[in-house]
UniProtKB/TrEMBL annotation:
This is Radical SAM core domain-containing protein. The keyword ATP-binding does not apply. GO terms for molecular function: 4 iron, 4 sulfur cluster binding; cyclic pyranopterin monophosphate synthase activity; GTP 3',8'-cyclase activity; metal ion binding. PANTHER family: MOLYBDENUM COFACTOR BIOSYNTHESIS PROTEIN 1, MOLYBDOPTERIN COFACTOR SYNTHESIS PROTEIN A. It comes from Carya illinoinensis (Pecan). PROSITE patterns: MOAA_NIFB_PQQE, RADICAL_SAM. The keyword Iron applies. Residues 89-310 form the Radical SAM core domain. InterPro entries: Elp3/MiaA/NifB-like_rSAM (IPR006638), MoaA_NifB_PqqE_Fe-S-bd_CS (IPR000385), MoCo_biosynth_MoaA/MoaC (IPR050105), rSAM (IPR007197). Pfam families: Radical_SAM.
């Protein structure tokens, strides 16, 4: 039997993408940088792990290991709101949980998914709505105060509104966020906000519709832009836009993306492309963070660096709007 602690320490995340999909080959992992990750497809890859976590989320049953939340009683959890399970070997406290709701996606981004697709987990092996909420409650009871829903594409789940509603009602949770490609978001966002969704990251790698269709192998650029506008109209501030920068594809749009932030509550997060086995791109597509910064400074010499927080995964800057860089390949943050 694999313990909850061993489950959390089992794998590292790889291959960042704008949609929050951290490599389709890793189905369970601990965290990259300051975020804990839980993947809802875990059951089909390790039944013992899945069964153990189901037991943990139903009453925090004590097990044979010592340094996990499972060994704590409900009274201990109340008296000690931050569990030692959330402290890593470097003494860092992790209060940010990412939950992958599904591996399915309605786009086929070339840097994320092979043209032939991937083998998907059978539906019966996915975590149910109740299991997701129970697992989230375990972490929130231990000190997690922010949860981000990712995928795949999280809005594909038919029960996404109910999941948001139940998670947002967890005592102690301060922020419920979502990373989405925005294809179907505009139609669902009003209801999702009513259900407690408080923060958004929307993936958009290009402002040119033809490039979008080439990269994603699907139409939908207008729908993503509509979702961004809807989010702003509904009061999300800021709306974070994730952009994976690739040489020869969209690196000529960096300044255009920054202009989106001039008068609108949009934060642009430029993500370094991460090559991994299975995508059709190579390391020559990488535009290092330092090169992006040089280009921006030439156009905006008054660029100001903002104060970083200890758990930030981006270096943050301000011009007239606010831009964030996610560092990966050339300058890892974890």
């Amino acid at each position: 039997m694999v313990s909850c602690t061993e489950f959390l320490e089992s794998k590292w995340c790889t291959g960042p993408t704008a949609c929050g999909h951290y490599g389709h080959r890793l189905k369970y992992h601990k965290y990259g940088g300051p975020h804990l990750h839980v993947n809802c497809e875990i059951a089909s890859y390790s039944e013992p792990i899945y069964n153990n976590c189901r037991e943990l989320t139903s009453g925090f049953l004590p097990k044979t290991y010592s340094t996990s939340c499972a060994a704590l009683s409900h009274d201990t959890l109340k008296d000690n709101p931050v569990s030692d399970m959330l402290v890593d070997s470097f003494g860092r406290l992790h209060t940010y949980l990412r939950i992958s709701l599904t591996e399915r996606c309605n786009l086929r981004c070339q840097y994320c998914m092979p043209a032939e697709g991937v083998e998907l987990t059978p539906g019966p092996r996915l975590l149910s709505q109740n299991e997701i909420v129970r697992l989230a409650n375990l972490f929130v009871s231990s000190g997690v105060d922010k949860i981000r829903l990712t995928g795949g594409e999280p809005t594909i789940r038919k029960d996404i509104e109910e999941i948001c509603l139940q998670l947002s009602n967890l005592k102690g949770l301060k922020t419920l966020a979502m990373t989405t490609n925005g294809i179907t978001l505009s139609k669902k966002l009003s209801k999702l906000k009513e259900c407690g969704l408080s923060a958004l990251n929307i993936s958009l790698d290009t402002l040119v519709p033809s490039k979008f269709e080439f990269m994603t192998r699907r139409k939908g650029h207008e729908r993503v832009m509509e979702s961004i506008n809807t989010a702003i109209a509904l009061g999300y501030n800021p709306v974070k836009v994730n952009c994976v920068v690739m040489r020869g594809f969209n690196d000529d749009e960096i300044l255009d993306f920054i202009e989106l932030t001039r008068e609108r509550p949009i934060n642009i997060r430029f993500i370094e492309f991460m090559p991994f086995d299975g995508n059709v791109w190579n390391v020559k597509k990488l535009v290092p963070y330092s090169e992006m910064l040089d280009r921006v400074v030439k156009e905006y010499p008054d660029l100001k660096r903002l104060q970083d927080h200890p758990t930030d995964t981006a270096k943050n800057f301000r011009i007239e709007g606010h831009c964030g860089w996610l560092k990966r390949s050339s300058s890892p943050w974890c």
